[in-house]
Amino acid sequence: LYTTTYNVFDSLAALDPAAVEGTKAFTFTHSPLADTPAVKEYRDAMAQYIKPALPPDFPSLFTFAGTKIFAEALSRVKGELTVPSLLAVLDNMKDYDSGILPPVSFSASNHQGTNGLFKMVAKGGRWVGTGEMVDSVKNAW
Q: Is the bond preceding 37 in cis, omega lying within 30 degrees of 0?
C-alpha cells in the first residue's frame, strides 16, 4: 500500500498502527526523528522556542527547512536587500543542502527547488525513513 506525502505524519500512523503497518510513502523531508545534525538542530529549536512543547513532526520540519533556505538566501545578498537582489540570489542558488530536504536548486524558470523525495515506511505507529532519496519525476520505489 502506498500513500501520498500529505498523509505522512506520525499522529496518523499512531491512530491504528496495525492498519498502516508496512504502508509506503514519499516525503519532502527526512523523518523529524532522524539522527542527523540538521534534524537535531530542528528538534533543539522546537524544544527551545515552542511553548507549550509540541512533538517533532513532518509539517514543522518542512517549514523549518524552508526557513533555513530563506535565511541562507538572505545571507548571500550583497549590498542592499531588495526584492530584485533576493530574487537574483534565489535564481542562482544551486544544490543548497539544508540537511532536511534533498538539495535544492532554483533558477528564473524553476522555483520548485527539488524533485527529490525520501522513502518512508510505516512501522510500529511511526513513519521510518529507509535512507533513500528518489527523483519524483522518475517516481521509482
A: no
| pLDDT band, very low/low/confident/very high, at 115 (cuts 50, 70, 90) | confident
Q: Could you read off the pLDDT of 31-71 as tens digits, one per residue?
A: 998 999 999 999 999 999 999 989 999 999 999 999 999 99
Q: Please list the residues that pair with 121 across neighbouring strands.
A: 24, 128
Listed residue (111, 116, 71) closest to 91, CA to CA: 111
To 10 degrees, the CA torsion angle through 128, 134, 140, 141? Answer: -20
Q: Which three cell numbers stand for residue 22?
A: 508496512
CB atoms within 10 A of CB 45: 13
Angle of helix 37-49 versus helix 58-76 axis, rounded to 10:
100
